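Throughout our pipeline, every protein is held as a single compact record rather than as scattered files. The record that follows is passed on verbatim for readers who wish to inspect the format:
___
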Amino acid sequence: MAEMTKENKMGTMPVNKLLISMAVPMMVSMLVQALYNIVDSIFVAKYSSDCTTAIALVFPLQSLMISCGAGLGVGMNAILSRNLGAKDQDGVDRTAINGITVYLFCFLLFLLVGAFGAAPFMASQNDKATIVNEGTIYLKIVCMCSIGMYAQFCFERMLQSTGKTVYSMITQMVGAVINIILDPIMIFGLLGFPRLGMAGAAIATVIGQCVAGTLSLVLNLKFNKEINLKAITHIRPDKKGMGNILYIGVPSILMGSIGSVMVLGINAILSHMQILDTSLPMDEARNTAVAIFGIYFKLQSFIFMPVFGLNNGMVPIVAFCYGAGKRKRMLQTVKLSIMYAFTLLLIGLIVFQLIPDKLLMLFANEQNAEHLIQMGVPALRIISIHFPIASFCIISLSVFQALGKGFLSMGVSFARQLIVLVPVAFLLSLTQKVGNVWFAFVLAECLSITLCIIAFRYMNKTVISKIPE
């Protein structure tokens, strides 16, 4: 009966009301997730300019950890939802224990990465001892103590798979608030705590994740009766079930990993290029450029995360309309989504154009404020030009996924970020002007929208036009 009611809502509620009702909770959740990415950077920046660069350099590996957690969640959710729909309680319970086991293996993998790979990873990107040491400390803690993050991913996805999204939003907010409170206390040594710097930022993040993971487990045990976590202790995980989770989840992990590889590539370019359009010493100019790129990524998350939340609300509507043969309703959903995404990203463009100095000052201290403003203001203004263009690209790629063409979506993302963006950024770096490198983002987005238009025309011809009215 609950499923029938949901289908009726998806098929009959006015599209605009339906899209807003489904997207807004997702948008709030995504913004909360963005807090994890930015709070550490703001407080760490006040501690040391070298720490600002270090936090930018650790981002690709930290992002990869998150991509693995999110991707595994996609696989586990898909199988859980299928079994829930089929009223297969044994299948639900087996999927739950298989999911927990896969997440445990993922934690063990990154525990080893943190123990043995953190120092080489940092040393491969920078040769300044303080930056390498600070980044290594941070990575070791967040990788080796990632059990909280993966517990949070695992148990929040269980709540979401049974429609209890409010509870998952609560756990995310609790984790973020704890992180925000503990960051200044542990970084600067307030309230009698020792002054821990980067280690304090990492510990605050880990504590927030552990609390959120524990809370999400408790909420599952108390309110999620569809998944019997108390019973799964008697079930042994099986290779086939874990393989099915990986089979569905790995493409999503790869999609998320593309961004990590891109950031790693741009960091490498900025760390080794000859920068002549600034009066700063070469090493300082390079470190400042890397820090600015890291700051940009933190800031743009607040602009793009609501759009990704909008995507998460749009995809099930598009998929439902596709399955139900409601082409007009599906196209209306897509048009509204593009309009909302364009509006959000246009606001982001305006903010980045009008107050880039104030945004940068959030991450500045007495040591680097002047340099960040000098090099960062033009960077934010140039890169943000691509924001409105990206609206159509983001929505269309999600439409492809909703229509079962995930590899088409992954291909466009791969072409944009790795085939175009990184090589073009490298070629522009040969001009020895870091200001030119930022135009690579605009050029890559222009190619992306061209590919998306071509792909959308193809999808319309082969799939959408054949959907009955």
Observations:
- Residues 48-272 form one domain.
- Residues 1-8 have pLDDT under 50 and may be disordered.
- The chain is about 85% helix and 0% strand.
